[in-house]
Amino acid sequence: MTFVVTESCIKCKYTDCVEVCPVDCFHAGPNFLVIDPDECIDCTLCEPECPVNAIYGEDDLPADQQHFIQLNAELAKGWPVITEMEDAPPDAKEWETVPDKLQYLER
Question: What does the pLDDT look like over 65-77, one tens digit per residue?
């Protein structure tokens, strides 16, 4: 099992989770974070750190978020590793509860 970053992270991109990761498996894109499934050791430390509940264990992933398993794996290959907390986008709070944000994902 691996952990997966889901749609809730898009345009919020809070990085609280990256600082607790012992294996540096997070990768950062312009407005979204992903977890490299090949690096994740299933330690569970990141999940409670996410202020928008965007991180799930693969076995607990909601049905409508299943496609994020492949998306995390794909994007992790091209995005740089992030290991330190960064400021969230200035409008992150406004995006926290917006549904259906996949269309806003910047690659």
Answer: 999 999 999 999 9
* All structural domains of the chain with their residue ranges: 3-83
What is the CATH T-level fold of the domain 3-83, as seen in this structure?
Answer: Alpha-Beta Plaits (3.30.70)
**Whole-prediction pTM:** 0.97
Which residue type occupies 2? T
10 Å CB burial of residue 4 (0-12, 13-18, 19+) is buried
How many DSSP H helices and E strands does the chain contain? 2, 4
Which stretches does DSSP call E strand in 1-107? 3-5, 26-28, 33-35, 55-57
